[in-house]
Design brief:
The complex is a heterodimer of chains A (303) and B (842).
Chain A (H helix, E strand, L loop, with lengths): L10 E12 L2 E12 L3 E6 L5 H9 L6 E6 L8 H5 L2 E4 L11 H9 L7 H11 L12 H13 L5 E5 L7 H16 L4 E6 L2 H7 L2 E6 L2 E7 H7 E12 L8 E16 L5 H8 L1 E7 L3 H10 L4
Parallel strand pairs in A: 3-7, 3-8, 5-6, 6-7
Antiparallel strand pairs in A: 1-2, 1-4, 8-9, 10-11, 10-12
Chain B lengths: L19 H12 L1 H20 L2 H26 L4 E3 L4 E3 L11 H27 L9 H20 L4 H24 L10 H27 L4 H16 L10 H13 L2 H20 L4 H26 L13 H4 L5 H34 L3 H13 L4 H20 L3 H5 L3 H24 L16 H24 L4 H21 L9 H16 L5 H10 L10 H28 L1 E4 L4 E7 L5 E5 L2 E2 L2 E2 L9 H4 L5 E4 L16 H14 L6 E6 L2 H11 L4 E7 L21 H16 L8 E6 L11 H23 L4 E6 L6 H4 L1 H18 L1
Parallel strand pairs in B: 5-8, 5-9, 9-10, 10-11, 11-12
Antiparallel strand pairs in B: 1-2, 3-4, 4-8, 6-7
The chains are: A alpha/beta (303), B alpha/beta (842).
């Protein structure tokens, strides 16, 4: 797998050969990843692929068993203060203490981050419509996500880390979160990293995309590169196929009877000849959407 | 290719359940299997011990052991039937909300855990009665069963009813527990206050009726919770929250992350300890002290109990405090805290600071209560007397001692509260539960050891290298603990080491100061040894705090165990420091012992301290009180200076200080005989100059009467005169002399009266007539009484010395009875004159 090397742009997050096991189960299997500075990095994967585990390694909430994790060229376990002071983190379920009020939360968080921008925080709070005297336990799910996002953003972190931020939220809140992501990167030199399985969002904002499947990186690169690598063909067979035709080198295959859809990963030049050899002709040939690529990869059995 | 383990066949096939109640029961069983088995295991263990050991074991040790295990099993029982779960929406611990969507009527949901709880607690109780407490006589076996069952019902009602009010719930449960213990003891009071209300026949229906009422309340509460809460419940909550809104809130920003973390921890749990202390003081001790306000003996006991309140509460609260999140059941660190840019050491320090402030506030409350109670509605007769005595003994340093003692109390409470911080923060249940259990076991073992082998602490068994096995083990444990903790702390937070050293050194200085200031009272170990041992044991409580940041870091980062190596240099340093401090402690403990000798005094060994060279030998005899007395350290301001010009020997009489007990009767002649034997065995040749203080005066007079040729002079320092015989027991100054001691005193004085001073030897009698200035807090009546007594003694002394040929009377005007402590130079000069006289006579 060709991965962007760290020498081209300074890598904010550099993960090399990371593996992690919980008991007998291997959750991350030789993962290598570089997040270049000033980019939006999207991590896709199905539930249980290991996205949260990877993010916990970046935050130092898990120590690397094998391999290394470096954030801003520092080890997040050895230097928690230096790393976490520059990271804004929004988790899937923002576990904010329910007893705090919004203003107390802001005041508390402000103490930890020297770059906290009070004016900006106030602006965001007004924009999100959060009542300062309200307790966090009485906020709705969307408001809690917004409060978490506020805390993550207000100190203008160098790395904004979002773990499935939009899960279970309505489109308006999702829009706010995406806006935050975009705005982060628009300010020079800051990076955003988020994991999601809402592919249209990832498609919309990411510069680099990586996919985790059963603990392995299946593809990684810019959206254009990925799309260039995959191709979706529709084949029309002369005779109806009772069982799925076996075609070498395809990612996935679906359909019935005479019409079959094939997703290819790199074998697009050979496919016409193979298809002709099997008695089929190509009636459609187009660039697949990210959703289709994801489903194609996720459906395969990684050995 | 995927590889999966073959499905293991379950050990016990799970039953198929056909009714919802069976399903609920099965669920309760499955989630509390471990605790249930532990409880049954305790019973089985104790039953086995009971069957295997004789009744004698039960009388001495068995009761306490069984009691401990019974307490543990009941705690487990109440833990099992803590039938609550955290409700995600409401952020409190209440009746499991997820059960409300099942097609079961509410009354079944409520009565099932209640009935199971009652049944289980009765089962456990009867198992204890029938299987373990077979040797005990239990008057009414059924009554505690009733109380236990109704407390179980009350317990669950409170848990479900006061779901949102955590602190109130804790207080209600504690109060309920205490009052049910009180109710359980009511029938015993029927012997003292016979009243029909204390009989079992009346109490049982009342208690059962209350339990039924509580269960009805529980049913109503849970039904209301199921159907969304009624208007009245939210009325109270909204009033409460409105009141909380009105309270002043912080509006300033935090200056540092550490202060923000302190605020966070304080908001979670800081006020719990002060509130609980206030509650206990006002609700429990207030009425009790008012009720007993005319009883002086009660005041002293209750004062001690009140001083113990913060300790007990701090220990209990501390068990929850040491977890990363106070109010949660899990030990894992919440990720809200884990992602803050704050190092683990800072988090630990903020917890310790919150604990310190909590403890300080509680002590302020306790002292204010005492300050209000003692002057206004307590009978302080006994306490005033003890305080006057204390001030007399330490005229210059009593204030410093009181302040130091307060400091020690507060510090110990704080240490008790953060006890096991490293175990709680580590996130492992085995450490969290295991650490206090281990500590309790060690304490119990130590008490057993001291109880069963008192001789182990006495050095007579090995007179020269006199450290017992227990002493060695303690010393080693202390040294290891200290340095292990420093090692762990410096590994994880090298920048915090200075704070650790600050705490350690300031406490050491306090202890050293305490030791120095209290040295005017003769203790039975050398001062230096005592101080070194105290200073070394001081680190004992501090030691494992240093481990806390390391374990928190493990919890936070879920560290895989990868042993790191310290730089070799640091290892060597720490090893050297361990060795040095170990040697220092051992030397300190042994220092004193190496100077003493143990000499046979006619069948038993007495401790002797011999210094100096030359003749004649000065022999020091200490004062006595009946059969007891003061140890040889009493002469520590006199003997060293005297030994510069002649040989001296001071000793502990048999049964006093570190000497073995001797045969009865302990009258003066027996004591003189033993002294003579000891001096001969120690190869101290006559002539002797005898110096006796207080009751040592009669003793040396008897010695001089029995061995006139060996005595070359006598110095009597404020001795007890035989006119004492004439005072009847009711008239004596110290009203607490036992009748046996009184007989000994009379016998001793009679024998002294009958002894004759050997002809021609010089006798010096020193009387303390002062002190000139009596302490200001003594009442006029006390001062007058004291002066009268001193005048009387002076008269007796003057009369007696006038009849002695070659006698000299010296008045010590700045001293009271304790001349060897306050004006030792008078004694030294007198001895010197006698020694010179004795040498020139030869």
């Amino acid at each position: 797998m060709k991965l962007p090397s760290p020498s081209s742009a300074e890598a904010v997050v550099a993960i090399t050969d990371l593996s992690r096991r919980f008991g007998a189960k291997t959750v991350l299997n030789d993962v290598s990843l570089y997040v270049p500075r000033g980019s939006v990095f999207g991590l896709v994967g199905e539930n249980g692929a290991g996205k949260t585990t990877l993010i916990k390694h970046i935050l130092g909430l898990l120590q690397a068993e094998t391999g290394t994790v470096r954030v801003f060229n520092l080890d997040p376990v050895a230097n928690p203060v230096a790393v976490l002071g520059n990271v804004g983190y929004l988790s899937e379920q923002p576990d904010l203490p329910g007893w705090m009020r919004v203003e107390e939360l802001l005041r508390y968080a402000q103490a930890f981050y020297p770059n906290w921008d009070k004016v900006y925080a106030e602006k965001l709070r007004a924009q999100f419509g959060l009542d300062p005297a309200q307790r966090l336990s009485t906020l709705s799910k969307g408001q809690t996500a917004k409060a978490g996002l506020l805390v993550a953003q207000a100190h203008r972190p160098n790395l904004l880390l979002l773990d499935e931020p939009s899960s279970g939220l309505d489109p308006i809140v999702r829009h706010d979160i995406l806006q935050a992501v975009v705005r982060t990167v628009a300010d020079e030199g800051r990076t955003a990293f988020f994991s999601s399985h809402l592919l249209e969002e990832i498609e919309r904002v990411s510069d680099q995309i990586a996919m985790l499947h059963h603990g392995r990186i299946v593809f990684c690169g810019s959206l254009d590169e990925i799309k260039a690598r995959h191709r979706r063909f529709t084949l029309h067979f002369e005779t109806a196929q009772v069982k799925p035709p076996v075609i070498a080198g395809v990612l996935s295959l679906s359909g019935e009877g005479k019409e079959w859809t094939v997703m290819c990963n790199g074998t697009r030049t050979e496919l016409p000849s193979i298809a002709a050899g099997m008695g089929a002709r190509i009636i459609d040939d187009r660039v697949p959407s990210l959703n289709e690529i994801f489903v194609a990869h996720a459906g395969t059995f990684v050995s | 290719m995927k590889f999966s383990w073959p499905m293991r066949a379950p050990l016990f096939p799970e039953p198929t359940m056909h009714s919802p109640l069976a399903g609920l029961t099965w669920e309760i069983w499955r989630r509390s299997r471990r605790s249930a088995c532990l409880a049954l295991g305790c019973i089985a263990f104790c039953a086995l011990i009971n069957a295997a050991t004789p009744e004698r074991f039960y009388d001495r040790v068995g009761q306490n052991l069984f009691g401990l295990f019974m307490l543990v099993s009941f705690l487990l029982t109440f833990g099992i039937f803590n039938y609550t779960e955290v409700s995600a929406t409401k952020d409190w611990n209440s009746f499991p909300y997820r059960l409300f969507v099942l097609p079961i009527p509410t009354w079944q949901l409520v009565t099932l855990p209640m009935l199971l709880g009652v049944a289980w607690v009765e089962l456990v109780y009867f198992a204890w009665i029938r299987l373990v407490w077979t040797h005990a006589i239990i008057p009414m076996p059924g009554w505690p069963a009733v109380v236990l069952g109704s407390y179980m019902v009350f317990y669950q009602t409170v848990l479900w009813g006061l779901a949102g009010f955590r602190i109130a719930r804790l207080i209600a449960l504690g109060f309920g527990g205490a009052s049910s213990i009180g109710v359980a003891c009511l029938p015993m009071f029927s012997k003292i206050f016979p009243s029909p209300w204390f009989s079992e026949e009346r109490l049982v229906p009342i208690v059962v009726g209350l339990a039924v009422l509580a269960s009805v309340v529980a049913l109503a509460t849970v039904r209301r919770q199921r159907h969304g809460g009624g208007r009245r419940q939210s009325w109270f909550k909204t009033r409460w929250e409105r009141m909380l809104d009105l309270m002043p809130r912080r509006t300033k920003d935090f200056r540092t992350p550490a202060s923000a973390q302190f605020w966070f921890e304080w908001r979670r749990a800081g006020l719990l300890l002060p509130i609980c202390t206030l509650f206990v003081l006002v609700v429990i001790f207030g009425p009790i002290t008012w009720f007993y306000r005319r009883d002086p003996a009660f005041t002293a006991e209750t004062l001690l109990k009140i001083l113990a309140v913060p300790f007990v509460l701090a220990f209990a609260v501390g068990k929850a405090f040491i977890k990363p999140e106070f109010w949660s059941m899990t030990l894992s660190m919440p990720s809200f805290l884990a992602v803050r840019p704050l190092s683990s050491g800072e988090i630990v320090v903020s917890k310790m600071k919150v604990a310190a402030l909590s403890v300080a506030m509680s002590w302020v409350l306790v002292f204010s209560f005492i300050a209000l109670w003692l002057p206004f509605w307590a009978d302080c007769a006994d306490i005033n007397e003890s305080m006057s005595l204390f001030h007399l003994i330490y005229p210059h340093s009593w204030l410093a001692l009181e302040l130091l003692s307060i400091g020690v109390l507060v510090f110990s409470t704080w240490r008790l509260m953060v006890n096991g911080l490293w175990a709680g923060l580590s996130g492992k249940r085995s450490y969290y539960f295991g650490s206090p259990v281990l500590q309790i076991c060690l304490a119990v073992l130590l008490l057993f050891a001291i109880g069963f082998w008192p001789d182990a602490l006495r050095p007579q068994i090995h007179p020269t290298l006199a450290i017992s096995i227990v002493g060695w083990a303690l010393v080693l444990a202390v040294v290891l603990k200290l340095w292990f903790a420093v090692f762990a702390w410096s590994r994880i937070t090298p920048r915090r080491t200075w704070q650790y050293w600050l705490i350690w050194s300031s406490c050491t200085i306090c202890f050293v100061a305490l030791g120095i200031l209290s040295a005017s009272i003769p203790t039975d170990t050398f001062r230096l040894e005592h101080l070194i041992v105290l200073a070394a044991f001081l680190v004992f409580p501090l030691a494992r705090l240093g481990l806390a940041p390391f374990f928190l870091a493990k919890n936070r980062h879920e560290l895989v165990l990868t042993p790191e190596r310290l730089a070799v240099g640091k290892n060597v340093q720490i090893a050297l420091a361990m060795v040095v401090s170990g040697i220092a402690i051992l030397l300190g403990m042994d220092f004193g012992r190496l100077a003493f000798r143990y000499v046979d005094a006619g069948g038993h060994q007495v401790r002797m301290l011999a210094c100096g060279h030359g003749s004649p030998t000065v022999v020091f005899e200490t004062g006595a009180r009946g059969s007891g007395g003061a140890p040889l350290e009493m002469w520590e301001k006199v003997q060293p200076d005297v030994s510069k010009f002649t040989s001296t020997v001071a000793y502990d009489r048999a049964g006093v200080g570190l000497s073995a007990p001797g045969p009865d009767p302990r009258d003066a002649r027996q004591i003189a005989r033993e002294l003579h034997t000891a001096l001969q065995n120690a190869r101290m040749a006559p002539p002797y100059i005898l110096v006796g203080h207080s009751f040592g005066g009669p003793f040396i007079r008897v010695f001089a009467g029995m061995y006139p040729g060996e005595v070359g002079g006598m110095v009597l320092v404020d001795p007890t005169q035989e006119e004492f015989i004439n005072r009847s027991q009711a008239n004596n100054l110290d009203g607490d002399i036992q009748p046996d001691d009184w007989n000994l005193i009379q016998a001793g004085l009679t024998e002294a009266h009958e002894s004759r001073i050997p002809g021609g030897i010089p006798v010096v009698l020193i009387t303390g007539t002062g002190p000139r200035v009596l302490p200001s807090f003594a009442t006029e009546e006390q001062k007058l009484k004291y002066r009268t007594m001193r005048q009387t003694w002076l008269k007796y002394h003057a009369d007696w010395i006038a009849k002695v040929p070659n006698g000299q009377h010296i008045l010590a005007e700045n001293s009271g009875h304790n001349v060897p402590d306050t004006e030792p130079e008078l004694i030294i000069n007198a001895i010197e004159r006698l020694v010179v006289q004795a040498r020139s006579c030869k």
